[in-house]
Amino acid sequence: MKQFSEKGVSRRIFLDYSIRALGAFITAAVGVPIIGYVISPVLAKSKKEEWVSLGLVEDFKPGPPRAVEFTAFVRDGWIESSARRTVWVTTQNGKDFTLFNPHCTHLGCAVYWDANDQKLKSPCHGGVFDPVDGRVLAGPPPRPLDTLPVKVEGGNLYCQYIDFRLGVTDKAPI
Ligand code: FES
Q1: Which has the higher per-residue pLDDT, 74 or 126?
Q2: Burial of 160 by CB count in 10 Å (0-12 exposed, 13-18 middle, 19+ buried)?
Q3: Shared domain check, 128 and 55
Q4: Residue 31: in which H helix or E strand, if any?
Q5: Which of 100, 101, 109 best tests ligand 1's pocket when mutated (most atoms within 8 Å of CB)?
Q6: Is the pLDDT assigned to residue 170 strictly greater than 90?
Q7: The pLDDT of residue 103 is above 80
Q8: 81 and 19 together in one domain
Q9: Ligand 1 mean position to 135 CA, how many Å?
Q10: Is the CB of 122 within 6 Å of ligand 1?
C-alpha cells in the first residue's frame, strides 16, 4: 500500500513538472515573437535610411553643385512616414561624386548656392563652405558640410541620407 502511494506521489510530481514545462514552452513560443515585434522599431531607429536613386549619372555634369530633392521613407519608432529630403551633389569629372547633407553644421540652416561667389552659403550667420570638399571658408560652422554615403549602380547615382549632430566639431549621426 505504501509503495502504491509513493508511485502516486511521483506521478503527481511528474505531471506537475510536465504541465509547468509545457506552460513555459507556450509562454516562450508566444512571448518571444511579441517582444521582438514590440522592440524591433526601436532597434531599427538608429539605422540609416534606405539607398535612394538621385537619377542617371550622366545627368550630373562637372560644375557647380546641384541640389536634388527626393522623398524618403522614414520610420521613427512605430511611426512610418515620408519626408522630403535635399542633398547637394558635386562632381569634378562626372565619375566621382560627393554628396553633402543640406544643413549648415552650425545650427542647421539649409545652405544655398551663391552663383556670384561660387560658394555654398548658410543664410543664417555667415557660414561659407567650399563647394568641392565642403570645408568651412568663413563663419561659425564648427566643421565642414557633412558628406553622405554615395554609390553608382546600373548607371544611377544613389544616396543614403543621414542627419548629424549640429554645432559640434565631430560628425556624429543622429
Ligand atoms: S546656421 Fe549656418 S552659420 Fe549658423
Answers
A1: 126
A2: middle
A3: yes
A4: helix 2-44
A5: 109
A6: yes
A7: yes
A8: no
A9: 14
A10: yes
| Alpha-carbon gap, residue 110 to 100, rounded angstroms | 11
**Do 61 and 92 fall into the same domain?**
yes
The answer to whether the CB of 124 is under 6 A from ligand 1 is yes
With cut-offs at 50, 70 and 90, classify the pLDDT of residue 79. confident
Cell 559640434, residue located: 168
Closest residue (by CA) to atom 1 of ligand 1? 107
Ligand 1 center to residue 106 CA distance, Å?
A: 5
137 vs 130: CA distance, rounded Å: 6
Pocket test for ligand 1, best of 125, 129, 146, 164 (most atoms within 8 A of CB): 125
SS3 of 99, please?
Answer: strand
Range of the domain at 11: 1-43
* Residue 24 main-chain phi, psi, to 5 deg: -65, -40
Mean of per-residue pLDDT scores for the chain: 86
Please give the pLDDT value at position 12. 75
DSSP class of 125: T
Give the model confidence (pLDDT) of 43-70 as tens digits.
444 455 789 999 999 999 999 999 999 9
* Residue whose C-alpha cell is 524618403: 72
List the CATH number of the domain containing 56: 2.102.10.10
- At 46 the pLDDT is 47
- pLDDT reported for residue 8: 61
